[in-house]
């Protein structure tokens, strides 16, 4: 993907990429202002604590996650969501295998290849 995506993206047409032990992601649709990313976790896998200048909104699609944002931790399950403000340190521990749907604004240039 060098310049965003078409306005329609079929999940089956996007390859998973490994981003760490037990974690893989799909970059779905994006433009300069926003990006949507699906992330799948095996039980016990972690999203290492990190920060970035983007606002991140995340929906728990399935599974259970201990989510920590700026020192606060909550266990979230399917249908729950969170927002990580710009530059807030945040991360997850997957308690029960599942998936997250992340939205970033602006898009994550560091996720874009090419």
Automatic annotation (TrEMBL):
InterPro entries: Bacilysin_H2HPP_isomerase (IPR052535), Cupin_2 (IPR013096), KdgF (IPR025499), RmlC-like_jellyroll (IPR014710), RmlC_Cupin_sf (IPR011051). Pfam families: Cupin_2. Residues 38-95 form the Cupin type-2 domain. This is Cupin domain-containing protein. It comes from Alsobacter ponti.
